[in-house]
Amino acid sequence: MTTRVESSGVESWREAFESIRAALPGERDVAFEAFAARGFPTNRVEAWKYTSLRPLARQRFRPAEPDRDAVVPFLNAGPRIVLVNGFLREDLTTVPVGRWAGPDNRAGVEDEALVALNAAMAGDGYVLTIAEIRDEPIEIVHATVPSPTGPVAQSRNRIVIASGGTARVIERHIALGKGAYFVNGVTEVEVQAGGQLHHTKLQEEGADAHHLWFMPVQLDRDAVLESAVFTFGARLSRNQIEADIFGEGATLALNGAYAIAGRQLADHTSRIEHRAPGATSRQVYKGAIGGQARGVFQGHIIVAEGAQKTDGQQLNRALLLSGRAEIDAKPVLEIYADDVQCSHGATAGDIDGDALFYLRSRGIPANSARGLLVRAFLSEILDETPEDALRRAVEDRIDAFLEVGA
Amino acid sequence: MLEIRDLHVSVEGRAILNGLDLSVGLGEIHAVMGPNGSGKSTLSYILSGREGYAVDRGEALYDGRDLLALEPEERAAAGVFLAFQYPVEIPGVGTMTFLRTALNALRRGRGEDELDAMQFLRVVREKARALGIGEDMLKRALNVGFSGGEKKRNEMLQLALLEPRLAILDETDSGLDIDALKVVAEGVNALRSPDRAMLIITHYQRLLDHIVPDRVHVLAKGRILRSGGSELARELEARGYTDILSEAA
């Protein structure tokens, strides 16, 4: 057992951890040992059945260092929070934020080896607390500077919407330059009674990046979280949401759109636990997959005993644009209450041949026609997005994808 | 302009067209009539380039070019247009976006300037009005939630906008009530021109009361069994297909 774990790369991470341990605030050893006991998840771990991190475990990464000079591009001129290499850039941040001060070893979340690794090694992170109604979107940029040493950027962030608070947040993940790097981040989201958060994530990591991001969510009574993720970048990425709906009447909407090609792997995993009655969860994930790329969707809905009148729906649709593109979808419903409405659906297929012929018969060349259809497929998720700059950024990424992937 | 000679077409090994001959000259309107299963839709699809049909023998020449060797978009660029019997619903693609993309693709192919949004809007509004198509219909996703009549009108709008040289109308009258039929027929008649040919494929004669063809052909068992003037359509309406089929047998 020990041999297997140690051979899966833990030792080099122990070295890395010990090299920065003294500079980190808070108690870290418990978290690191929690990671070391598990190692990087492989296909043998059920939740990682379709996304093995074995290749990642074999590579050596060095903890990324703060970069005080990097120039960071923005979508909007509005309020923003900026992190480079996982460290807050106070000079670029225009929103009052707190700083993460070390792990509190919250039970449950640390079950995930990578979250434990993040708890052990994260050097910084923002804490954004909103108690008022804010209309203007807050742009949060997570930028990483690649380098030949293979930097790993790990930040631990937290968004708290207090009762009566409403906010719009855009989290962008970008590379400042070309090259390999590894991002292992966490954004914790807590929406207190009656609060509302509209959250959009735009993942545009570099082509050689690995991106793992965890979003533990807590929803109190009548809280609302709408979160959409747009995934385009990274060689391998996983967006994992663990939602705990403990408040009655809360609403959770998780949407995702992704377009991947080449040998990319994009994993969208969610686990929603309805622990209170009368709450609603909605999930729609749509992916366009070209080349030899692979999409993974795992949607797990748990309705606890007593969570009556729960309404939980999830839908996963994939457009396979080449014969070697692949989607692995695993929806799971686990229901312990008797008065609930839950459903899941999954479809995977090629572009509709009738639609393609119809467009071509009107003189639209095959490539443009395919592009129109892929855009149309992904537009359902994009149409929910109110911010113009964000919408344009996503459209540009879809166009770039169509040039290489479809 | 269209010359079909001894055309044999099969689908998944099943013969559908068995030696079809048809010649349509510029400026002419021809009707192809036939019972269900006679190969009418196959004829329209093979001419417009849909996949899944095997040409076993024969040819179709369009202005002397081998039409069947061209991709669907190349046929469209050369001026071939099919008004679909069942127009396809495409969620997420706006009707206006579609119309503009199609028109500009054809204009590019003809070496003409593309229309900008304002120019396009003017053209499409004028043609839509003539066909009784409201703004709200143009704002919806392509054919999504359209009634049968609305879909057919949308096909006629595309016909008017794209101005093909050879228009093939596949069962355009199906799903239309009598008022819609008149509107559509007026639209088609307005496009009659010495520079344009039309092939009207239909089961029933009623559309031909409004669009009078120069020639009528009876298609059955994958071949043209009889050809005649417009009076042949009325004869078919009165006597049905049975007589002709038995005469030919």
Reconstruct the topology from this structure.
The complex is a heterodimer of chains A (about 400) and B (about 250).
Chain A: H1 2-20, H2 29-38, H3 54-58, E1 62-63, E2 80-84, E3 87-88, E4 98-99, H4 113-121, E5 126-130, E6 138-144, E7 151-153, E8 156-161, E9 166-175, E10 181-191, E11 196-204, E12 209-219, E13 224-231, E14 236-245, E15 251-260, E16 265-274, E17 280-289, E18 294-303, E19 311-320, E20 326-335, E21 341-349, H5 353-360, H6 366-382, H7 388-404
Parallel strand pairs in A: 1-7, 2-6, 5-8, 6-9, 7-10, 8-10, 9-11, 10-12, 11-13, 12-14, 13-15, 14-16, 15-17, 16-18, 17-19, 18-20, 19-21
Antiparallel strand pairs in A: 2-3, 4-5
Helix pairs in contact in A: 1-2, 2-4, 5-6, 6-7
Chain B: E1 2-11, E2 14-24, E3 29-33, H1 40-48, E4 54-62, E5 65-66, H2 72-77, E6 80-83, E7 90-94, H3 95-109, H4 117-130, H5 135-139, E8 141-142, H6 148-162, E9 166-170, H7 178-190, E10 197-202, H8 206-210, E11 215-220, E12 223-228, H9 231-239, H10 242-248
Parallel strand pairs in B: 3-10, 3-11, 6-9, 9-10
Antiparallel strand pairs in B: 1-2, 1-4, 4-5, 7-8, 11-12
Helix pairs in contact in B: 6-7
Structure characterization notes:
The complex is a heterodimer of chains A (406) and B (249). Chain A is α/β, with parallel strands linked by helices and 406 residues long. Helices cover 21% and strands 39% of the residues of chain A. Chain A contains 7 helices and 21 strands. Chain A has helices at residues 2-20, 29-38, 54-58, 113-121, 353-360, 366-382, 388-404, and strands at 62-63, 80-84, 87-88, 98-99, 126-130, 138-144, 151-153, 156-161, 166-175, 181-191, 196-204, 209-219, 224-231, 236-245, 251-260, 265-274, 280-289, 294-303, 311-320, 326-335, 341-349. In chain A, strand 2 and strand 3 (87-88) form a beta hairpin. In chain A, helix 5 (353-360) crosses helix 6 (366-382) and helix 6 (366-382) runs antiparallel to helix 7 (388-404). In chain A, 52% of the residues are buried. In chain B, strands 6-9-10-3-11-12 form a 6-stranded mixed β-sheet, sandwiched between helices. Chain B has a 4-stranded antiparallel β-sheet with strand order 2-1-4-5, covered by helices on one side. In chain B, strands 7-8 form a two-stranded antiparallel sheet. With 249 residues, chain B is an alpha/beta fold. In chain B, helix 6 (148-162) runs parallel beside helix 7 (178-190). Chain B has 10 helices and 12 strands. The A-B interface holds A 352-355, 357-366, 368-369, 372-373, 375-377, 379-380 and B 48-51, 71-73, 75-77, 81-82, 84, 87-88, 90-93, 97-98, 101-102, 105-106, 109, 141, 158, 162.
